[in-house]
Amino acid sequence: MKSISSLCIFLLSLGLSAQTMTTYTYAIKGKDTLKMDVFTPKGIGKDEKLPVLLWMHGGGFSGSHRAYPDDQKLVSYVAKAQNYIGVSIDYRLLRKNKATGFGCDCTKDEKIETFKQATIDYLDAAKYLIAQAENLQIDTTKIIAGGSSAGAEGSLNAVFLRDYFIKDKAAYANVKFAGVFACAGAVLNASYISKHNAIPAVLYHGTEDNYVPFANESHRLCLPQQAGYLKLDGSKVIAAKLQALETAFYFHMVKGAGHEIARIPANKDLDQIFEFFNQTVIHNEVIQTKIIKEK
Question: How much is the pTM?
Answer without folding.
Answer: 0.93
